[in-house]
Amino acid sequence: MMMALSTGVSVVGQLQQGQAAKAAANAEARNAENLAAQTRDAAMQEAARIRKAGDRTRGAARAQLAASGIDVNSGTAVTIEDDIGTNSELDAYNTLLTGDRKATSLQDSAAISRARGKNAVTSSMLGSVSTGLQGWKAVRAPQVSAPGYAEPFRGPR
Known about the structure:
- The chain is mainly alpha-helical and 157 residues long.
- The chain has one domain.
- Helices cover 83% and strands 4% of the residues.
- It is built from two helices and two strands; from the N terminus they run H-H-E-E.
- The protein has helices at 2-67, 76-140; strands spanning 143-145, 152-154.
- A two-stranded antiparallel ribbon has the order 1-2.
- A hairpin with a 6-residue loop joins strand 1 and strand 2.
- The chain is rod-shaped, with a radius of gyration of 34 Å.
- The two termini are 19 Å apart.
- The model has no long low-confidence stretch (mean pLDDT 88).
């Protein structure tokens, strides 16, 4: 009787341990997904800030060129404005790309955490089946009383 009770407790414990591991892994996954979304949002905000700074720099350059008496609609003035615009757009793009790569890495981590949780549940189920079968085998094993002992002696296994 005690062997059956012990086996039952062990089986339940293994199943609960698998569910707890899955819950922890899912919490890790949700955290990683939230960080991925925050990373993308931060990259988009930073890219917008870089573009605005580029526009201000272009405007300031145009104003300085005009104040110097240079025609701002041709030649070097246009080249300077184009270079400032191109450089700020490249900086913004690189910021978005870096943010996207970090976010993708975090999403991959989330997927790995979820898989780890599923594996923990599967492992706990298999372990509990094994424990149950071992307990059943022990309970079903022939019991032999050894001389001089109050407890039954279970034969060799």
